[in-house]
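Exercise 3.2. Students should predict the tertiary structure of the chain below and write it as structure tokens, then compare their answer with the key that follows.

Predict this chain's 3D structure.
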Amino acid sequence: MQFHIIIVILHPKIIIRFINQRLIEMFKKILIGVALVALAITMGRTVPDKKAHKEAMMEAVRAYVDDEAIQHGLGDNILTDLGKGIVNKTIEVALNSKLEVDNYFLFNTTHVELGDETKTLSLGIFGHVFTFDKEMLRDALEEAAQEKVQLKEERKAAKLAEKEAKKLEKQLKKEQRKREKEARKAAKRAEKEAKKREKEARKRAKELEKQNRK
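Answer key:
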């Protein structure tokens, strides 16, 4: 019985079938591995750079501003265009200064610090940038607007403080010159009084000398 079992197991057709199955499985694994490596290389080479993220986000900003203008019935006029330009420029400046890129080789993301929160703005993968939604964009716009107002107030306060400092410095210099002038006048009066007393002393000395001679 054992002899027949060994013959069955070692039968060439069974061995060939077993080897073929193993080869097919190995080939499948190799194909999957090659495909995964090729996919990883493709993803790594097509990760968008920071410039692509900014361009995609600025497109989203312009589209959002246009939608907001239409929804609020502003239409296309000079004032609206001016407002759009200011908003776009403000966001562009904010992105240039605050946008940070997080690279993960196969893809990357961008984020900004809004107050105490870190918000992801976009995802870059396969050469394409997926941008944030309108709610996050609204938060970014409000944050940028608040920072602009705060910066304006800080500049105004700094300018006012500088003006007050100059005014105080001018007043101190004026008071210093006044004190110096009064000191010079007092010195001249003292000198004049001293000369007067000296003259009177010489006069009395002469009179006493005259009296002594008599």
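Discussion points: The first strand starts at residue 100 and ends at 103. Strands lie at 100-103, 108-114, 117-125, 128-131.
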